[in-house]
């Protein structure tokens, strides 16, 4: 019999601690070894008990979830899954937590104190099991981003590479990017390295709740030289812009008779993930053909792997994140195994490899 995955539950609500404990221990592979009521308490118990994973609320007294997370990540104690509500404020804080090294997050379906956590039980259990990997802990620790603004290089300070003009019917290429678990921290490292005058339009699917997308796009836009927007139906596609797929619909394209390409957000086909990386890549490739660059990075599952094969076979460039940095080496690994990755590189080299295509 294998050892159970040891979980430490941190939440300032006694009701939430009891509910999470009961939910987690329904799975025979998991056990809750302790609970913590605030940020100071969870850091102390994490150091003493060395759990495999911590579930941690963002809003806690004494020492908030972000500060506690930072200490746990810096000491490489274990992976942390944040438990958050759907408010705009909590969305922004959740992105900060992911950039600081949280493995992933789970949303409380009914706000700060939720009695309906059973609705996210399967998601929580799956993420706790993936987070228990010691390999993912080491990768997240290496990606720790300093909170001191003085130590962070702003995007405008990154030297802009010289891009060759693109000669095709559009005057630019298309970059189709798929990413999931571990995505926010990876994208905050990748997108700022792309120059403002990049002769390409970017289309991004990050598996994320619909209500988080506007704040996520705004955050990426502030840190990037290119423009980053939440994709809206009818938008005219332009080079130097990254269109982030909205939740609960697909991200598609329409090539009009006058030569313009516009965004479409259809509700079909229904897929396991909405939006789907594969559906986005299929639509982009249908318009741009061999001028498509496919990029597949960290994430659970195989979404996008099939289209990476098709893009490569048609003459387009495909880049997959390597196991060296992928927090979860699922999506890129599948693309590599299927022969859909022309280039395999760590996250901090993907921008460099991408720019070689111009």
Give the ordered list of helices and strands: EHEHEHEHEHHEHEHEEEEHEHEHEH
| Number of structurally distinct domains | 2
Rg from Cα: 20 Å
Helix content: 25-40%
- CATH class placement of the largest domain: Alpha Beta
Please describe the biggest sheet, giving its number of strands, its sense, and whether it closes into a barrel. Answer: 7 strands, parallel
Give the class from helix and strand content and strand pairing.
Answer: alpha/beta
Tally of helical runs: 12
CATH homologous superfamily placement of the largest domain:
Methylesterase CheB, C-terminal domain
Low-confidence stretches: 145-158
Distance between the termini: 54 Å
Architecture of the largest domain in CATH?
A: 3-Layer(aba) Sandwich
Mean pLDDT: 89
Total beta strands: 14
Q: What is the CATH third-level topology name of the largest domain?
A: Rossmann fold
Report the principal-axis shape.
elongated
List keywords for this structure.
358 residues; alpha/beta; Rossmann fold; five-stranded parallel beta sheet; 12 helices; 14 strands; elongated
Describe this structure as you would to a colleague:
The chain has helices at residues 14-24, 39-49, 65-74, 88-100, 121-131, 134-142, 183-190, 213-223, 277-288, 305-313, 331-337, 347-355; strands at residues 5-10, 30-36, 53-57, 79-84, 104-107, 173-179, 200-206, 227-230, 241-244, 252-255, 261-264, 292-296, 317-321, 343-345. It has 358 residues and is an alpha/beta fold. The radius of gyration is 20 Å and the shape is elongated. Strands 8-9-7-6-12-13-14 form a seven-stranded parallel β-sheet. Strand 1, helix 1 (14-24) and strand 2 (30-36) form a beta-alpha-beta unit. Helix 2 packs parallel to helix 3 (65-74), helix 4 crosses helix 7 (183-190) and helix 9 (277-288) runs parallel beside helix 10. It starts with a strand and ends with a helix. The chain is built from twelve helices and 14 strands. The model is unreliable at 145-158 (pLDDT under 50). Helix content is 34%, strand content 20%. It folds into two domains: 5-142, Response regulator (Rossmann fold, 3-Layer(aba) Sandwich); 156-355, Methylesterase CheB, C-terminal domain (Rossmann fold).
């Amino acid at each position: 019999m294998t050892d159970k995955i040891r979980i430490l539950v941190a939440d300032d609500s006694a009701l939430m601690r009891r509910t999470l404990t009961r939910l987690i221990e329904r799975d025979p592979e998991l056990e809750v070894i302790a609970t913590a009521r605030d940020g100071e308490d969870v850091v102390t118990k994490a150091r003493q008990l060395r759990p495999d994973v911590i579930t941690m609320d963002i809003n806690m007294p004494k020492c908030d979830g972000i500060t506690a997370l930072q200490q746990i990540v810096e000491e490489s104690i274990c992976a942390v899954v944040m438990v958050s509500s759907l408010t705009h404020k909590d969305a922004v804080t959740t992105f900060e937590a992911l950039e600081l090294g949280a493995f992933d997050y789970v949303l409380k379906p009914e706000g700060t104190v939720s009695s309906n956590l059973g609705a996210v039980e399967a998601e929580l259990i799956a993420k706790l099991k993936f987070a228990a990997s010691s390999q993912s802990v080491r990768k997240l620790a290496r990606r720790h981003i300093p909170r001191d603004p003085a130590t962070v290089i702003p995007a405008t300070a990154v030297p802009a590479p010289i891009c060759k003009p693109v000669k095709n019917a559009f005057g630019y290429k298309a970059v189709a990017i798929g990413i999931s678990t571990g995505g926010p921290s990876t994208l905050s490292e990748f997108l700022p390295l792309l120059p403002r005058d990049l002769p390409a339009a970017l289309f991004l699917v990050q598996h994320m709740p619909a209500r988080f997308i506007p704040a996520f796009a705004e955050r990426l836009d502030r840190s990037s030289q290119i423009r980053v927007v939440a994709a809206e139906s009818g938008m005219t596609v332009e080079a130097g812009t990254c269109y982030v797929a909205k939740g609960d619909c697909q991200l598609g394209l329409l090539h009009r008779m006058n030569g313009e390409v516009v965004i479409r957000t259809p509700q079909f086909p229904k897929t396991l993930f909405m939006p789907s990386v594969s559906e986005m890549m299929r639509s982009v490739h249908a318009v741009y053909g061999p001028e498509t660059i496919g990029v597949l990075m960290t994430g659970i599952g195989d979404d996008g792997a099939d289209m990476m094969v098709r893009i490569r076979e048609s003459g387009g460039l495909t880049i997959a994140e390597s196991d060296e940095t992928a927090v979860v080496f699922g999506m890129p690994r599948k693309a590599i195994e299927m022969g859909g990755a022309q280039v395999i590189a760590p996250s901090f080299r993907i921008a460099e490899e991408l720019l070689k295509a111009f």
